[in-house]
Write a structure and sequence with these properties.
Layout (H helix, E strand, L loop, with lengths): L33 E12 L13 E7 L2 E3 L3 E5 L6 H8 L7 E6 L2 E2 L4 H5 L2 E4 L11 H9 L9 H7 L4 H4 L8 H13 L5 E5 L7 H16 L3 E6 L2 H7 L2 E6 L2 E7 H6 L2 E9 L11 E7 L2 E7 L3 H6 L4 E7 L4 H8 L16 H14 L11
Parallel strand pairs: 4-9, 4-10, 7-8, 8-9
Antiparallel strand pairs: 1-2, 1-3, 1-5, 5-6, 10-11, 12-14, 12-15, 13-14
Length: about 375
């Protein structure tokens, strides 16, 4: 793909909200306010004809979603493919307009002030498409011009993600999937945005680069930046996020900090003792006790102190308490669910046409095309 002639670097839109703040230097924290706020945000597809096709059924991709993302936190937006994650992101950035409800990003209205928002937000779309005819260096230079602040973090990001100067001289068409994803991450973060919206950011990265990416996010959080992190990989959400929202069929089913969510999950415990097996059935939080051949297995929920006290006087040979995992919480919320979540299939179903229509804008950071705001 070659660079479109009609794309030009954006400038901040005149008449932006008076709450708009100027970009600070790298490492300077922002005031503590909500970076994102939605109120009963909804998006429906399918009520009408699409070209020569007959009118399809009405599909609710997002239904009455009310969330707030605090500045300075890493916020995980969790759900399987088709649950509404990408629809939410496109509403926040103004690529789609809501059927009902509203959203604010950095104090600006997501529908009315979308161009100004995209000039201040770093964005990594899922399955990013890049200009194949440009070198990596030229592509990063071009995308840097789409923002009002310089690429102050580029050198650091290139070093940490191991993209050499020699690699940047090659055309993007010669890049592997992982290298393309690194370019996508760098273009989203190189200008040190106060808010970064990252859709499946570790897709295509090897384990070493995933770890490097997580460390980058930790440093950004320490500097007061805000990360809206969409993923279906539970382990990475658990690893990096402060709070998490879980959506099912376009509806919010959980919104709390990761620690609190995990504290109520059941842990799997294996206890091996010498001598008589203990009676744990009456211990608070213990359930599903199975004892055989000196080994006791069970589930432990909540505070472990009652269980620890019950071990007094026992000759314990071995004890394993597996930590609670976000996977258990996620599966609990999706218990009985079939398919991929019941919302619009954002790549292949009703939402797929919207995905295709916005991919080109996504590839350029989507900041410079005011028409993309609808």
């Amino acid at each position: 793909m070659t660079q479109p002639d009609h794309l030009s670097p954006i400038r901040m839109a005149h008449g932006a909200s008076p709450r708009t703040r100027s970009q600070p230097a790298a490492g300077v924290a922002f005031p503590a306010v909500d970076a994102i706020r939605t109120e009963a945000l909804s998006k429906h597809y399918g009520r009408g004809r699409l070209g020569p096709l007959p009118a399809g059924p009405r599909i609710a991709a997002l239904q009455e979603l009310t969330v707030s993302v605090h500045e300075g936190e890493i916020f995980g937006f969790l759900g399987p493919n088709g649950a509404g994650k990408s629809t939410m992101i496109r509403l926040l950035l103004g690529f789609l307009h809501p059927t009902a409800g509203r959203a604010e990003v950095l104090g600006l209205d997501a529908a009315r002030d979308s161009v100004a928002i995209r000039g201040r937000v770093g964005y990594l779309p899922g399955g990013i498409a890049l200009y194949d005819g440009l070198t990596g260096e030229d592509l990063l230079d071009y995308l840097a011009q789409l923002y009002s602040s310089p690429p102050v973090r580029r050198a650091e990001l290139l070093d940490r993600l191991e993209l050499s100067a020699r690699t940047l001289k090659r055309t993007v068409r010669d890049y592997s999937r992982g290298m393309r994803q690194k370019i996508g991450i760098i273009q989203a973060l190189q200008h040190d945005p106060e808010l970064a919206v990252l859709d499946e950011p570790t897709e295509g990265l090897d384990p070493l680069m995933q770890r490097a990416f997580y460390e980058i996010l930790d440093d950004l959080r320490a500097a007061g930046r805000t990360i809206f992190f969409s993923s279906h990989i539970l382990s990475e959400v658990e690893r990096v996020c402060d709070r998490v929202a879980i959506i099912r069929s376009g509806r919010l089913v959980a919104l709390e900090d990761v620690g609190s969510l995990l504290s109520r999950r059941k842990r799997h415990v294996e206890l091996r003792v010498r001598g008589d097996l203990p009676d744990l059935d009456r211990v608070a939080g213990v359930s599903g006790v199975v004892a055989r051949d000196g080994l006791v297995t069970f589930s432990l929920e909540g505070d472990i102190a009652p269980f620890v006290r019950a071990l007094g006087g026992l000759d314990v040979a071995d004890l394993t308490i597996e930590p609670a995992r976000l996977e258990e919480a996620f599966l609990e919320f999706y218990e009985g669910e079939t398919g991929t979540g019941g919302g619009s299939d954002e790549r292949n179903g009703t939402g797929g046409e919207v995905h295709q229509a916005t991919d080109a804008a996504d590839a350029a950071g989507a900041a410079s095309v005011s028409a993309a705001a609808g």
